[in-house]
């Protein structure tokens, strides 16, 4: 039987996408296992979610490091210590340095609340879609690269902007898609069943 993909989930806030992945990973046959949750700050609800699920938590505080390179190395060291083979960013508000991509090649995922390349690099993408009069927005899951929100797209799903939508109502429907789409992509990565840009994306177990 193929072993489950050990993943580190990186968070900065409430952790609703983390919860979706935790719930999925509790189901028989799911191909990924959350081995650690890493946050850049303490006292956030995401860490409570992890603790309730019995998953170890680690805080790598940005203020303890002098630059992005040192912070990135610390995050990757924690993930390595727990045997993670992939990093899954779930509302993680820090930009990782290039060394993360070298240490976890093709195995760092991010989710963004828009149809990239529209409205990249912002936590206010839902409001920006409304401000620009977009008729459709959505969700994108992509690989993390050195350029913010510019990595190869893995999956996208549209969300129609309804008349009378405000940021709260539209964001709620965007999150419904996120909570379904992200666990499915993580599962595909764990099953070695992910094809991006015409090639299979695989992973090796840590020795």
Task: Write a compact overview of the structure shown.
With about 210 residues, the chain is of the alpha/beta class. Helix content is about 35%, strand content about 25%.
CATH topology: Rossmann fold
Query: How much strand content do the residues show?
Result: 15-25%
Query: How far apart lie the N and C ends?
Result: 18 Å
Principal-axes geometry comes out as globular
Q: Widest sheet: strand order? A: 3-2-1-4-5-6-7
Tally of strands: 9
CA-based gyration radius: 16 Å
Order of helices and strands: EHEHEHEHEHEEHEE
Average pLDDT, all residues = 92
Uncertain segments: none
Largest beta sheet, briefly?
7 strands, mixed
Q: Which architecture would the CATH scheme give at its second level?
A: 3-Layer(aba) Sandwich
Outline the structure in words:
The protein has 207 residues and is an alpha/beta fold. It has one domain (5-194): Rossmann fold (3-Layer(aba) Sandwich). It is built from six helices and nine strands; from the N terminus they run E-H-E-H-E-H-E-H-E-H-E-E-H-E-E. The chain has helices spanning 16-25, 45-52, 68-81, 98-103, 125-131, 167-190; strands at residues 5-11, 32-39, 57-59, 86-89, 108-112, 136-143, 153-160, 194-196, 199-201. The strands form two sheets. A seven-stranded mixed β-sheet has the order 3-2-1-4-5-6-7, sandwiched between helices. Helix 1 (16-25) links the parallel strand 1 (5-11) and strand 2 (32-39). Helix 1 (16-25) packs parallel to helix 6.
